[in-house]
Every structure is written in structure tokens, then in C-alpha cells.
């Protein structure tokens, strides 16, 4: 027996990697993050213990060998003077001296039933290993009882691993020592596991909800947009299911379709990591249109091929799995909408052309989400639910409206009427974000979206409301004040502000001036708006400081700071008049805009594709939902004065329209409604009527046909043509 002489030891615990794969970066991009946790290698945590003896070594044996190894990469006690990694561990103690951990529910499978009471644990002897198995029964500290649901983790994979790790920690806590003081020290050090798991969870949420990943490099002076990450999916091997179905259903040689199957799998693989540009959009549309043919060719309504489409949630990483192609289509369309949001956030928002392109992409994203909302229902994934899609539609429209306001600010004139229009445009943007905030605060949505999104929407609503007040304050306070122009200016102000303010409510703190009639009233009203702008800017800055994720965004902090300082500077120019308005609020501003936005419905016809499995025949006839007999060869031999005795009609494929009684065709087994698939060795499923008739006549006195008999004869009728 090897007794360890060291007075201190380290426990090295490796937790499993994150449950969700990282978002894939497009060509020319680098995936964010470089920590061990983000790269899927897990995290190491070290805990020190005093007076460690050989009985403290915890090893996985027997029944729980695979269980522990699937949860903990290794859990081993090493002397402190050795290197934790790369060194050989001390020789293990004999089996009889080593306690064996058994998870709940597994201890009784091989137990003999004999138990004894030792301290705070029950011990049960097993026949297989003849070791004493401790069954934890005494209470554990509260931090060991925290479940994944309490941490906000809904991922099933993570929850399962959490319970296993939690049980291992409970066992370590009870087996470490019976000394109360030492147990408290162990409990304190093991709390790092909880804190690091929480950190990993927050890093995952930050990576999925980051608003900086897809921002344009030339838009640093603007508030960041909110892009949406793509859903991810696993690879699927379609070879065996498709080949089996081709052989069974279409009665054709499956090896002929190796190339189309490979091409379809390559297309799906490329679709998983599209480029962040128009070529990526085209790739997703191409795959979506190809799914139309795949669905009709290989997915019958009454059976399953054993193909499961598994997709991960865009924000939480929770997997969802279904066997229907409709789920695959919905996820592809969601990725199209998400890709449009990324393109909109990437455009240069310092130029009119870049802002127009951003507006176009945000409207396309909103149109895609609207199409999903109206077309696909009862989706298993949370990001495809009607509540989330409705929130995304409002969010994309608000961001498009924000880009239009930024475009209006580029090179605008300083005349009073233009500034009044800018103020109403800013109020309209604030109203749009207020609607988004109302939608995102719904209980079905609030618990799903990242907290940084909610904070950023709140900040934008306050920021643009403050901008609205500042614009009108600047217009009122900077007007020329010469006596000669007073009458003309007063008329312009009255005309511009006639419908500018909303009717104030019965609030005694609201200033009773909506259309100023003189210079003094203009100053009073302007200062009231300026003071309101300062207060609302301060509220936006407070919201920014309260959000842990957003307060790290220096660009956002800089924009908010500049807006606040500009309003404060304008207010400081009128220190004397400010005393009159310390308790007076300005009347609310009426939102207005000259540009009406409309959703851009997806146009699938712009990305036409060719059926990869065209050789199977026209999809309207040769599809998975139709049934027909196995192909049968027919050989007809006639005399020079004799006819074959049948007529055909239709195109692609040609159908047997009629069979003469007592003719060669009737005796050979040709029936009305049979489909002609081959003449000789030539496939004629796609041939028009005239070419098929020509081949029959060119055959001479011997005609070799391959026919199939459909089970549902629902083909159109055409005039007969005798052969």
C-alpha cells in the first residue's frame, strides 16, 4: 500500500465542454473567443486538501466506470509537489480500501442487500467488486443543491451532465473528511465549480447574443444594431436512405444516383456555413428550392426514412429534432432572415448608399420572418415560435426606421422646417423601439432573448426620444432674433409647430405652450425641450451602466456621452432663463415620417434550381406519394400488315390511352393507363408525345417497351393517337 507522505494535495476536476457548438464563421472570418471552454476542451479547477490519505483517492470502477468517465475526464488526487498535468499519478491503493462512487439508481443493481451504517453514509457490499459502496444520505450545502434550471439553463444535454457532476461533487464533499473545519474549507473551495459553470453559461450567452460581431467597421460613430445568429445543424448522411428508397420505390439501380446524392450533401454542407454576402443568400435560397424536389421525391406522407433533421436554437443552443422536411425548410428560412440582419448591421452607415442597403436588408429580414410566421406553425424550436417571430419583425422594422433617420441627418439643411421634421422622425424611431420593448417584455419572450437585447432596445428608445427633444430645442433656441425678422419668423414657427405637439394631458407640470407666439415663449419652450433631452439622455446612460454586457461596449458609451454633452452644452448657454423651467415639462412630440416602410416578401423565383434527381422522371408523376407497379418488359412482334393494337396520349410521361381487343398489346398484358418509361434501351419518361410516337414507328416489326402501372390513375385526358 502506497501511503502518500505529502501534507497537501490537489484535486484536478475537468468539467465537460459547452453543450452547443460555436457559431461557424464565414470565409475570411475568425471565430471569436480563444479560451479552453470555447474551444470545447473543458475547464480545469484545482482544490487543495490537507492531510490526504490513501482512502481519499476517488476512482471510477465497475458499474460506474463509464458513468464517471462520461462526466469527468479525470478526478484524481495528486501530491502537491508533482506537476498536475503530464506526471504519473501515485500507485493506487488496494481495491478494498478505495470507496466506489455509485450514482443514484445504480447502486442496487448488483448489491447483495447487506448494508451497514458508518458515519453519515450507508455502505453496501457488491458481489462483483467486493468493495464497500457509500450511498450519500446526509444533507449537503445549499450550493450543491442548485439545479441547472435555477441557473437559467434549459439545455437537456447540459442538465444531464450537471446532475452527474453534481453527484460527483456531493460524493467528494462527503468523502473528503469528517472533520467539520476541514469540511467547511472543502465546501468553500468547491464552490468555484458553481461559479465557473455560471461563467461558462454567461460566456455562451454573450457569444450568441453579441451585438458587435457583425457591426460594420466604418459605423463606429453609430449605436450598434442587433444582428441575429444563424441556427446550426449537424451533418446528415443521405446515401443509404436515399439509395434504399430509390431501389424499393422507383425500382431503379441506386448506384446511378451516387453523384446527385453527393451533390445534394455537399450543398447542405455548404449551406451550414454560408458567406456573409449575397452569395451566401443565394446559396441558402438554392438549398431551400432544392428541398422542394427532395421532399416530393423521398419523403412519403405515410412512412419515415429514418432521417432526422436536428437544429440548434439560434440563441440558447437547445437542439430540436424532427423528421419532416418542413422543419428543415423553416430553419433554412430563419437563417436567411438572420443572414439579412447580419448584412444590414455590416453596411457602412456613414453614407447614403450604405444606409439604403441596410434598410433593404432589414426589410428583407422582416419579410422573411413574416413569411415564417404566416406559413410554418407549431415549430418545436423556440426561435420559430409566433411570439419570437413577431418580436423579430418589430425589431427589424425599428432598425430600418433608425437607418432612415440616420440618412436624414446626413447633410441636412439647418432651416427650421427641416429640423422640425428631423425631430418628428426621431420621435417616430423612439415610438418604434417603444413598441419593440413592449413586445420583448412579454413573458413568453423576455425569458428567452438575451438581457443585453432588452437593455439595448430600452436605451435606443430613450436615446431617440432625447434626440427628438434636442432637435426642436436647437431649432427654437438658435433662430435669428432681429426685430425686422420677428414677424416672419413667428409665422414660420406657428405654421411648422401647428401639428407638432400632441395635446398635453391634465398634468400641472406640463408647460402650457404648444405654438409659441413670441420670442420669449420660443425660448421657454425650447429650454423645456432641452432640459427634457438632458434628463432622457441621463436615463439612457443609466440603463447602459446597469447592463453588464453593454457597459463594456465603448462605442455605445461614446455615442450616449456625446448626445448628453451636446444637450448639456446647449442648456448651459441659457443659465438665466433655466430657473424659470425647473419644474416644467415640455408637451409630448407627435411622431411623424414622410417614408412608409413595407416588408419585402421573399421571391423564391429569382433562384431557380434544377432537380438533382431529374432522371427519376417528372416529379408530378414519379414522386414519393404516388405508387406504381414494378417495371415490366413487353415485347411485341407483328407482321407487316398488322398493328401493335394500342394508342398513347400525353407528354412526359406518355400514357397508354387505349388497347384494342384481341390485339398483340392485349395478349402481351398492356393495360389502359400504363406509363411508358422505356422504349428499347432509351428512357422516355421526359420525352414529349411526338418523339415517343416516332420511336415506336422506327422500331419496325419488333417493339420492346418497359411499362409501369400506377396505383392511382389521376392523369389528364388528351385526344388519342393510334400507333
Automatic annotation (TrEMBL):
Start and end residues of each PDZ domain: 633-711
Region (Disordered): 95-123
Domain BRO1: 224-619
Stored InterPro entries: BRO1_dom, BRO1_sf, PDZ, PDZ_sf, RHPN1_2
SUPFAM superfamilies: PDZ domain-like
GO biological process, one term: negative regulation of stress fiber assembly
Keywords: Coiled coil
Record-linked PROSITE patterns: BRO1, PDZ
Highest rank taxon of the organism: Eukaryota
Residues in coiled coil: 183-217
Protein name: Putative rhophilin-2 isoform X1
Organism: Penaeus vannamei (Whiteleg shrimp)
